Amino acid sequence: MLWLYQRVMTGxxxxxxxxxxxxxxxxxIVVAPLIALLLVLGVYPKPVLDIINPAVENTMTTIGQxxxxxxxxxxxxxxxxxxxxxxxxx
Length: 90
Fold this sequence. Notes:
It is an enzyme of class 1 (oxidoreductase). By secondary structure, the chain is mainly α.
């Protein structure tokens, strides 16, 4: 994967692509809102998830599936760790 990235992103410009330049101002104006939207939804996706959840729940009901409740497994203490904050028990 790193080899692919190196070849595509940092290698020499391929023959025939020398005339392709960086984004111009007009293209940046189009791309900037998309980048901002991606960043906002990446940090706070709740508005989109609130819109999607009713349809997902309806689909899950239709196919007879349910979303299992989250469960927390009992943690296993690490080797040598004390069982309580007071110290190890004999």
